[in-house]
Amino acid sequence: MSSARLIYGFHAVTAKLRHDPEAIKEIMLDTARKDVRARDLLKAAEFHQVKVSETDGKRLDGLLPGARHQGVVARIEGGRKALHLDDVLDTLEEPPFLLVLDGITDPRNLGACLRVADAAGVHAVIAPKDRAAGLTDVAVKTASGAAETVPYITVTNLARTLRELREREIWVVGAAGEAENDLYAANWPMATAWVLGAEGEGMRRLTRETCDLLVKIPMHGSVESLNVSVAAGVCLFEARRRRS
Fold it and tell me: Which terminal Cβ of the chain has fewer Cβ within 10 Å, N or C?
């Protein structure tokens, strides 16, 4: 049985070309795409010696019903390699900078969080195997290429994983609306794992209790909370500012 999978959209396909071109079996490009993005993609594919097939847009629609593929689909040979946390931590030459997602079941939120994590320079995103969206086609598309560049690690027991991070002297910092500590006033070390839960529900109790520090994002308007990807951006870029 073939283990091939499809990724789509210019960001996702271009990122795969840049970081792992050997895994691409074929790129299918809508014959109607004659613009700059299409030409740049063709040049990159030629450079990496990746086959490009000009394909009717309706065929692409049939391959990915309802998806906004932008006229470009890549067939990837093999599934994603399962990553372990040690695979990432043992190779770092700087203090770890991690994002932990607890209870994020919307694939678009996951994709957006991956995109924010990539932009902030996060070393890996960690999530539980259960009660999590997983890297679906929708999540990968929303991530705009970040699903191919940011290690996404799933764990069986999130609380245990957080305890293991603490044993490695990585502070676990949770974002919670009811926290007493203000994000901009609180202090934390450079080695951190930032934990965010779903909007409304937040982190699970055991996850919250495992954190070394809880911080809140100060809210100055009438809304009480932010979308998880927005909250992740606020926290991660404040942490990145301090790391710089």
Answer: N
Residues 161-187, mean pLDDT to the nearest whole number: 96
Strand partners, 128: 155
**Model confidence, pTM:** 0.80
Q: Which domains does the chain have, with CATH numbers?
A: 5-76 (3.30.1330.30), 85-243 (3.40.1280.10)
d(CA 175, CA 87) in angstroms, rounded, equals 26
**Long-range interactions of 178-187: CB distance < 8 A, separation 24+:** 178/216, 179/214, 179/215, 179/216, 180/214, 180/216, 181/213, 181/214, 181/215, 181/216, 182/215, 182/216, 182/218, 183/215, 183/216, 183/217, 183/218, 183/234, 183/235, 183/238, 184/218, 184/238, 186/213, 186/215
DSSP, collapsed to helix, strand or coil, labels residue 140 as helix
Structure tokens at 27: 């790129």
Phi, psi dihedrals of residue 173, rounded to the nearest 5°: -115, 120
Q: What is the pLDDT of residue 81?
A: 62
Let me know: does 113 contact 232? Beta carbons within 8 Å.
yes
Confidence of residue 5 (pLDDT cuts 50, 70, 90): confident
